[in-house]
Design a protein that fits this description.
With about 450 residues, the protein is α/β, with parallel strands linked by helices. The chain has two domains: about 325 residues, Rossmann fold (3-Layer(aba) Sandwich), CATH 3.40.50.150; about 60 residues, Phenylalanyl-tRNA Synthetase, Chain B, domain 1. The strands form four sheets. Strands 5-6-4-3-7-8-10-9 form an eight-stranded mixed sheet, sandwiched between helices. The protein has a three-stranded antiparallel sheet with strand order 12-11-13. The chain has a three-stranded antiparallel sheet with strand order 14-16-15, sandwiched between helices. Helix 1 crosses helix 2, helix 1 packs across helix 12 and helix 12 packs across helix 14. It is globular and about 60 Å long. The relative contact order is 0.11.
């Protein structure tokens, strides 16, 4: 049942995402703890609960950037923009869950064209403020003209076309999460970054990215796909390839930090640097994935006409993750940063949150799921690797059945190579072992 909330936020019900109290519209169902797939959009003020893991990882990445100073110097502010913020759950989580000692460095801008959504953001942020208040003027560190937005306890809101806002300042952090394809916003997003910046891009048009909708894939991404076991990885690489070539047109290069296919969307996070020399070398990381007769694949830069028939591309063929940053995204870390304390839960209950021990257990499980397998696979995903769908291994190895994943990982590691599971809705193995070694390990563990 939806509870009536105080008049300053209006009727509806409350939900806890991470540590942040979220006010939902009365006509939106209370989310489940393990949402999957696209949710039905119900109008202004809509929150898609299936995007919660992506928002959680955004909090972790920003906290890591501030703690380890891989984007700005320790004494410098970090200018962050959520260009299509909707009701602002992501920016509110940045303000509420980034560790307290870094909060005064954050200069957060939330932009959206929807006045209703921005009002919802401002009322929610005022009614349920973060534990630590900050007080700074946006023009002190960014604007040299009269302020046209509104400052609300560390979040500066703008009602504007996202492309205009993206070009207004040198942001070090830009989040681009449109409803559908991000193609129309990429040029402005790249141009709006500082000399060294960080860009997070979400794409929910997975039919186009995977090749299920070939016409849309060619029109939007200039690519050709094959719908098979590698379609999800293709989708990630197609989007990365487009971001890389877009950056190169503006004399910039990208360095992938984390790139995932997560249920119903692709989410990539990349460092972007201004460098004409590196931008000129972008084609070194662009190519095609060619399917071999034995079920494996290889990457090539320039496919022959025959290879194009059994290939997907053009797409990014370089590394997908940063070993050190992704390696720190552990289950212990996400609980430490994003899981509410008993005191925070009790405070939320005083605002009207209905929350019990089962809710908290399931919420913690959801936080762990948002980073599951990432740290274990980080080293392999940061270098040349091969993916295997576990369901394909019996046919490849001629065993009729697949071994248990843990047993196979153990065998590959005993052979002197790396093996891990990647965070995908399907069971995928990532390894740096040669194909014949993997097949030998499959046969060995199936017969042991």
């Amino acid at each position: 049942m939806a509870e009536e909330q105080p008049t300053d936020v209006g009727p509806g019900h409350l939900w806890l995402e991470g540590k942040t109290l979220v006010h939902l519209r009365q006509d939106q169902d209370r989310p489940t703890h393990m949402p999957r797939g696209p949710a039905k959009r119900t109008g202004p003020g809509f929150l898609n609960p299936a995007m919660a893991p992506a928002r959680t990882r955004s909090v972790l990445l920003m906290a890591d950037a501030l703690e380890h100073s891989w984007l700005t110097k320790p004494d410098q502010p970090l200018r962050a923009l959520d260009a299509l913020c909707a009701t602002g759950v992501r920016v509110r989580r940045w303000r509420n869950e980034i560790p307290e000692n870094h909060q005064n460095r954050l200069r957060i801008t939330a932009n959206d064209l929807d006045r209703f959504a921005l009002d919802w953001l401002n009322r929610s942020h005022a009614a349920f403020p973060p534990a630590v208040s900050v007080d700074h003027d946006p023009e002190d560190d960014r604007y040299l003209r009269p302020v046209k937005g509104a400052m609300n306890n560390g979040i500066y809101t703008l009602q504007n076309d996202a492309r205009m806002t993206l070009l207004e300042a040198g942001y070090q952090w830009v989040d681009l999460d449109p409803f559908g394809s991000p193609v129309n916003f990429l040029d402005a997003a790249v141009q709006g970054l500082a000399r060294v910046g960080f860009l997070e891009v979400t794409a929910t048009d997975t039919a186009a990215l995977t090749g299920s909708s070939q016409g849309s894939q060619f029109r939007r991404y200039g690519a050709k796909g094959i719908v098979d076991s590698y379609a999800h990885d293709d989708a990630v690489r197609v989007l990365l390839g487009l971001v890389a070539t877009t950056a190169a047109r503006h004399d910039r290069s990208i360095e992938p930090v984390l790139a995932l296919f997560d249920g119903h969307h692709v989410r990539i996070s990349v460092k972007v640097r201004r460098s004409r020399e590196s931008a000129s070398n972008v084609l070194d990381s662009i190519g095609w994935r060619i399917r071999n007769d034995d079920g494996t694949y290889r990457f090539v830069h320039h496919p022959t006409p025959e290879e194009v028939e059994r290939g997907s591309g053009p797409l990014w063929i370089g590394s997908l993750w940063d070993e050190h940053i992704a390696g720190r995204m552990t289950e212990e870390r996400v609980l430490a940063v994003c899981s509410p304390t008993k005191e925070e839960i009790e405070k939320a209950k005083k605002h009207g949150l209905a929350w019990n021990e089962n809710d908290q257990e399931y919420a913690a499980r959801e936080l762990r799921r948002s980073v599951r397998y990432i740290s274990e696979a980080a080293m392999l995903m940061a270098k040349d690797h091969t993916l295997y769908h576990m369901d394909d291994l019996p046919n490849m190895a001629g065993t009729g059945q697949a071994p248990k994943m843990d047993a196979l990982f153990e065998a590959i590691q005993e052979a002197g190579y790396g093996a891990a599971r990647i965070p995908d809705i399907d069971p995928f193995l990532v390894t740096d072992a040669p194909h014949e070694v993997v097949m030998g390990c499959v046969r060995e563990r199936c017969h042991s």
